[in-house]
Amino acid sequence: MPGLWKRITFSLASVLCFGSAVLLVVALSTERWVAGRILCKTGVDIVNASDPELEQFIGDIYYGLFQGGKTKKCGLGNRRSKIYIFPKLVRTLNSGLHMMVILFLLVAVGFALVSLSFCIYNARKVPYQSIKGHKGLYLWNVIAALFGALGVLCFLAAMRHHSLTERVANYRENLFLLSVLDDSLDWSFWLGVASIGTHVAVCGVVAMSRIKLPKPQNKKPEEPTVSALDLLY
């Protein structure tokens, strides 16, 4: 049975591993990886709109790894539509890169759960193999952080170098051309980044578990000293 300090630290590491897995699952399932503004260029060209009138043609867009939505303003009022990445839109994107993002994040979730199980094991028992102890926890968390980082970097590459937002915005737009004014990473993306930081924190907590706290020493009661004068009595 591990000591109290190790039980506390490994319990905290278990909570962090579980939190990392939850962050990745939420990031995968939500639609706020990217948010931005889109301009209906066709509508602007038709009416020859000037700067004050451009606001009437500026809509918004948001999307995640599986779906999203956009609001288009082309002089006919607000037209909202839902965006579904699968099964057809992904073919117009860099489908290999998009699938790699999802795959890397799913693998990161798997290793986060493996790390969680090892943290629970170390909180309850003293491992007899090094791979089940500190070294194993370092390994699983480094792998989980590495795959999470690869997923995040692949998404950044798709967004910045493959015009991801523009392709998503103009999918199935036969009459109007939409131009992306600006796009930025939204909170779903930053959940994935936070998951990477969580695994770094787990490694720090596991390192703290190896600190040996000083044990309180019980003072022995002083034995009475017997002098020669006491023996005379």
Description:
With 233 residues, this protein is of the alpha+beta class. 57% of the residues lie in helices and 15% in strands. The longest helix is centred in the middle third of the chain and has 30 residues, at 95-124. It has a five-stranded antiparallel beta sheet with strand order 4-3-2-1-5. It is built from eight helices and five strands, in the order H-E-H-E-E-E-H-H-H-H-E-H-H. The protein has helices at 4-29, 41-47, 85-92, 95-124, 134-161, 164-169, 187-208, 228-232, and strands at 34-40, 58-63, 67-73, 78-84, 178-185. Helix 1 packs antiparallel against helix 4 (95-124), helix 1 runs antiparallel to helix 7 (187-208) and helix 5 (134-161) runs antiparallel to helix 7.
Provide key terms for this protein.
alpha+beta, 8 helices, 233 residues
Lay out the secondary structure.
Elements: H1 4-29, E1 34-40, H2 41-47, E2 58-63, E3 67-73, E4 78-84, H3 85-92, H4 95-124, H5 134-161, H6 164-169, E5 178-185, H7 187-208, H8 228-232
Antiparallel strand pairs: 1-2, 1-5, 2-3, 3-4
Short description:
The protein has 233 residues and is α+β, with helices and mostly antiparallel strands. The protein has helices at 4-29, 41-47, 85-92, 95-124, 134-161, 164-169, 187-208, 228-232; strands at 34-40, 58-63, 67-73, 78-84, 178-185. The radius of gyration is 29 Å and the shape is elongated.
- Count of DSSP-assigned helices: 8
Described by strand count, sense and barrel closure, the largest sheet is: 5 strands, antiparallel
Radius of gyration: 29 Å
* Overall 3D shape: elongated
**Share of β-strand residues:** 15-25%
* First and last CA, distance: 54 Å
Q: Helical content, roughly?
A: 55-70%
**Helix and strand succession?**
HEHEEEHHHHEHH
Report the uncertain regions.
Answer: none
**Multimeric organization:** single chain
Name the strands of the widest sheet in spatial order.
Answer: 4-3-2-1-5
Instruction: Tell me, rounded to a whole number, the average pLDDT.
Output: 87
* Secondary structural class: alpha+beta
Number of E-type strands: 5
